[in-house]
Specification:
Length: about 230
């Protein structure tokens, strides 16, 4: 985190003050513990950086002993993975809501999908940073992802992307979008949305133009660029 952005080649994660430790909870409230651990982890990882936070500190923030924390998560890596998986599942739900049953595959759907992605990121900046923006060497396992595998064999991240791509396929097949590889189209949209969201989250002090105007400009630019030329007025 000490190196420059140019050296890192990625947005800098903003830091916050760490929350105070919780008091130890009495036995019998274990059903709340998992979410309390994840909440403490989100706050600490953002405030102090994933690499510097120990499971001992996490346990103290959640009001547990270190041994008690291991009842719910075997490692710090597993806690971070749980945060990322929860974020992906929520994002997948956002895509599902934007493309509810019987939704026409038209440009209004494309606008909703783009807007929903950006709105989700900006409404959950901590989760978004930890899932998409922070570099986690421990989470890099070198496995090659394969989009051709069945949906139920994919991890939550690729499932979210595949749900998004499914709507892009509909838009291309309906003729609303130009004929192009749906994976290329979906990833282009995703990258553009991520760029805007990441910069607004990581650099809140920059003199940005009005946030909604920036979002509207990006949505409009993507929709016009991807629209089927034959459908233009």
């Amino acid at each position: 985190m000490a190196t420059s952005l140019a050296a890192q080649g990625k947005p800098q994660v903003r830091r916050r003050s760490a929350p105070a430790a919780r008091e130890r909870k009495a036995r019998g409230k274990g059903h709340e513990r998992r979410e309390e651990i994840l909440a403490a982890a989100r706050a600490l990882f953002i405030a102090e950086g994933y690499e510097t936070v120990t499971t001992r500190k996490l346990a103290a923030r959640a009001g547990l002993s270190q041994t008690g924390l291991y009842v719910y998560f075997r490692s710090k890596k597993e806690i971070l993975e749980a945060i990322c998986h929860d974020t992906f599942r929520e994002l997948a739900g956002v895509f599902g809501a934007a493309a509810a049953a019987d939704t026409p595959a038209d440009l209004a759907l494309l606008r909703r999908l783009i807007s929903a992605y950006i709105a989700f990121a900006l409404a959950h900046p901590d989760e978004y940073q930890l899932t998409f923006m922070a570099g986690h060497a421990m989470l890099k396992d070198g496995r090659r992802r394969d989009l051709s595998l069945p949906f139920d064999q994919q991890g939550p991240g690729l499932q979210a992307f595949l749900l998004f791509r499914e709507q892009v396929v509909r838009l291309v097949e309906s003729g609303a979008m130009r004929r192009m590889d749906p994976t290329v189209a979906a990833q282009t949209i995703w990258m553009a949305c991520h760029g805007l969201a990441a910069l607004l989250i990581a650099r809140p002090g920059f003199p940005w133009a009005d946030r909604q105007q920036l979002i509207d400009a990006l949505v409009g630019t993507l929709v016009r660029g991807l629209q089927n030329p034959s459908r233009r007025a």
